[in-house]
Design a protein that fits this description.
Elements lengths: L1 E5 L2 H18 L4 E4 L6 H12 L9 E4 L1 E3 L10 H8 L11 E2 L8 H14 L5 E4 L21 E4 L2 H7 L12 E4 L2 H5 L3 E6 L5 H9 L17 E6 L11 E2 L11
Parallel strand pairs: 1-10, 1-11, 2-3, 2-6, 3-5, 6-9, 9-10
Antiparallel strand pairs: 4-8, 7-8
Helix pairs in contact: 1-2
Length: about 260
């Protein structure tokens, strides 16, 4: 595990984007695992900027998203399909049919979860998985529980997650209570994982995930078992961990600020 500190949200977003961009450049036909929510917005904006500058080509890449709300159509403004089109897909040269998300309108939830796992397997897993982090330590929509759920599954969102996501909806009542999410097994199948976290509100979650016991009550803690995880966060999010474990990005990625 490597922990990298950015100066602020913009710097964290830039550094995260540079890792994703490096993956695409090194392996143009890579499979990127993508996340949604507030944390990756700046990362996607930077990737779009790199594409418009002519320094990044997505034409051979494929993407697999972590999750989707149950009951929301792809054209619903709060669906994650809409989010991805708005923030990334419509602004870069990803090929038609190369982007994948769970189907929020699937009539058979069990079949949809099995389909998504089969899709992920057919792609050979992800080369690089982007993650955010919930206040309660969730990754994707893998919520705290008594056991790690390995396959893609339909999950009831906790009240804390509903509250956190309410800012994206007109009212809390409109937030879906269920979602499809890639399971812990799918996430851990990624060859490299990059997590982006900012803000003091996530500091305890960061500490619990990376320095607490591995437990399904803190789903993100399972990342301690992965061989290649990079956490990119600002000082506020890292405020509860020792300074000695934070890495200077310049030693790892010389072009990060270009």
């Amino acid at each position: 595990m490597r922990i990298i500190c950015g100066k602020d949200y913009s710097d964290v977003s830039n550094q995260t984007a540079q890792f994703l961009a490096a993956q695409v450049r090194l392996k143009p036909d890579c499979v990127l695992g993508l996340a949604t929510g507030g944390s990756p917005v700046g990362t996607y904006a930077k990737l779009v900027e790199l594409y418009r500058q002519g320094t990044l080509d997505f034409s051979k890449a494929r993407t697999v998203n972590l999750d989707e709300y149950v009951g929301l159509a792809p054209d619903h403004p709060q669906s994650y399909a809409y989010y991805m089109r708005t923030h990334l897909f419509d602004h870069v040269n990803l090929a038609p049919g190369s982007t994948f998300l769970p189907d929020g309108l699937a009539r058979d939830g069990e079949a949809e979860c099995a389909r998504y796992d089969a899709l992920l397997q057919s792609l050979g897993g992800t080369d690089m998985q982007l993650l955010g982090l919930g206040n309660n330590g969730h990754i994707g929509f893998n919520e705290p529980g008594d056991a790690f759920c390995l396959p893609t599954h339909r999950v009831a969102l906790t009240e804390s997650t509903v509250s956190a996501n309410a800012r994206f909806f007109a009212s809390r009542e409109e937030v879906p209570r269920w979602a499809y999410t890639m399971g812990i097994g799918g996430i851990l199948s990624a060859r490299k994982i990059v997590m982006v976290v900012t803000g003091a509100a996530k500091a305890q979650a960061v500490r619990d995930v990376f320095f607490g016991p591995v437990t399904p009550k803190v789903p993100g803690s399972v990342l301690q078992l992965h061989k290649d995880v990079i956490l990119i966060a600002d000082r506020e999010a890292l405020s509860l961990i020792p300074d000695s474990v934070v890495v200077d990005l310049s030693a790892l990625l010389p072009f990060a600020n270009h």
